[in-house]
Design a protein that fits this description.
475 residues; alpha+beta; 7-stranded antiparallel β-sheet; 24% strand
Length: 475
């Protein structure tokens, strides 16, 4: 504008072919953002350019992040570029920090045009770690929220909030809340001193639930338990329940509850955005993913604290331990034994080639009906495909969402390439097997699933192809 005291600069730049957003935004090593000219600027400009100029002019935008290294540098750039792109107001979290679910909530409350979230979520932080950018459209660290809600408002002792001060490198800890990276918490819980434990990632959208003695609630089970006890949660007493959803690789535990309660179930590709579309259409109330994400339609993101509060509501009504609630659930609905193997940072070409070859194998007609024998057990292939999803709201088709091998009886082997890694490729292998025999409900998942793992390793030749001897993380 002519009368503006600010001068808009136009800077030449050229595109980077590796700036393809994955499952949830762009994630790269910090040094890539620092060393490649305009790397951050290019991506941010693409975000602004994707918004119609008429909507952008004078609009309000939310910016926040998990406080990781490079956040404050990025925010300075974003504010300047927002002004140059005609955005009227930028709402920034205090010290640049705002959890992913909080950004979603603020966007909806103040009717912002969208929000830029500076996080690489569960990936490590610090100068040698990862940085990431997500953009949430108009439909939508964790520590300060834990202190405020769990300690100040609900009265948990202050020393129950551990690692809750935002740090640029997360104090050297890995922010992914799982059994491997959350091992300290599991050990602490094993002492039997505490009844309930939870871990979150830096941007607060993931959660891990633990009971006394470190009893682990698998995330696929967690959403199923919340679904089965949904009316213990006041929010749903008011809104009712419209539908349940899980991502394809998430175990089918939720399906059992949906069937019993006659509530519609949606199976989507990995990525919370698929739930967002269903929520916008009023079809979905509760969703969960095996990747430690759980949430409801009050915002358009998964929300770790929400999941914890949901569990606490259930505990308060049922007055049972986490373990008792979980084991009761298995007795009622059967148990989906479940595990995920992650092969992190493997060679990209080797991973892509493995997936292509595996797809050829599973898409061969002769594959259906094939019987795999491991020890005394036999598994017959009932169906196999590369998962494809047609959005029931707008008909958009998402292809290539993971290779599925489904055996008679419902056991499944799934292979996917992660869309959130920043270096090389991460191959995810998911195994799901249903058991309803009451005498077999309390076994070690790794023992129960060992045969299916053997079949998966044989079929994919993943160790031979990647030079690995085993996964980096087992959940
Ligand atoms: C993101 C998505 C989730 C997805 C997860 C893992 O979470 O929002 O929907 O399940 O990544 O994706 P992938 O298996 O492709 O690595 P977050 O918490 O990393 O933003």
């Amino acid at each position: 504008m002519n009368d503006s005291p600010l001068q808009v600069l136009t800077l030449p730049t050229s595109p980077y072919p590796d700036q393809r957003p994955g499952t949830s935004g762009l994630r790269k090593k910090v040094h890539i953002f620092q060393s490649k000219k305009n790397y951050l600027h290019n991506f941010i400009q693409c975000i602004f350019s994707s918004i119609d100029l008429r909507d952008r002019q004078g609009s309000t935008m939310v910016v926040g992040g998990d406080g990781r290294y490079f956040n404050s540098t990025a925010i300075q750039v974003i504010v300047q570029m927002a002004a140059a792109n005609g955005v009227g107001r930028v709402v920034i979290g205090q010290n640049g920090i705002m959890s992913t679910p909080a950004v979603s909530c603020v966007i909806r409350k103040i009717k912002a045009i969208g929000g830029i979230i500076l996080t690489a979520s569960h990936n490590p932080g610090g100068p040698d770690g990862d940085f990431g950018i997500k953009f949430n459209t108009a439909n939508g660290v964790i520590g300060p929220y834990v202190k405020k809600i769990l300690c100040e408002e609900l009265g948990s002792p202050a020393n129950s909030a551990i690692n809750c001060v935002p740090l640029e490198n997360f104090g050297g800890c890995h922010p992914d809340p799982n059994l491997t990276y959350g091992a300290d918490l599991v050990e602490t819980m094993k002492s039997g001193q505490y009844d309930f434990g939870a871990a979150f990632d830096g941007d607060g959208d993931r959660n891990m639930i633990l009971g006394k003695h470190g009893f682990f609630v698998n995330p696929s089970d967690s959403v199923a338990v919340i679904a089965a006890n949904i009316f213990c949660i006041p929010y749903f007493q008011h809104t009712g329940v419209r539908g349940f959803a899980r991502s394809m690789p998430t175990s089918a535990a939720l399906d059992m509850v949906a069937r019993a309660t006659k509530i519609q179930l949606y199976e989507t590709p990995t990525g919370w955005k698929f739930f967002g579309s269903l929520m916008d259409a009023g079809r979905l109330s509760l969703g969960g993913e095996e990747s430690f994400g759980t949430g409801s339609d009050y915002i358009r993101e998964k929300d770790g604290l929400w999941a914890v509060l949901a569990w606490l509501s259930i505990l308060a009504v049922r007055r049972q331990s986490v373990e008792d609630i979980m084991t009761d659930h298995w007795r009622t609905y059967g148990r989906n034994y479940y595990t995920r193997f992650d092969y992190e940072a493997v060679d990209l070409d080797a991973a892509v080639e493995m997936m292509l070859d595996l797809e050829l194998v599973v898409s061969d007609k002769a594959f259906i009906g094939q019987v795999f024998t491991v020890g005394e057990k036999k598994y017959q292939v009932e169906a196999a495909d590369n998962f494809e999803y047609s959005d029931p709201v707008d008909g958009t088709i998402s292809r290539n969402q993971g290779l599925r091998i489904i055996f008679k009886g419902g056991s499944r082997i799934i292979f996917r390439l992660s869309g959130t890694d920043s270096f090389g490729a991460t191959v995810r292998l998911y195994i799901d097997s249903f058991e309803k025999d009451l005498s077999k409900l309390f076994q070690d998942p790794q023992v129960v699933l060992a045969e299916l793992v053997t079949i998966a390793l044989q079929l994919s030749q993943i160790h031979e192809r990647t030079g690995r001897r085993g996964p980096t993380v087992i959940t």
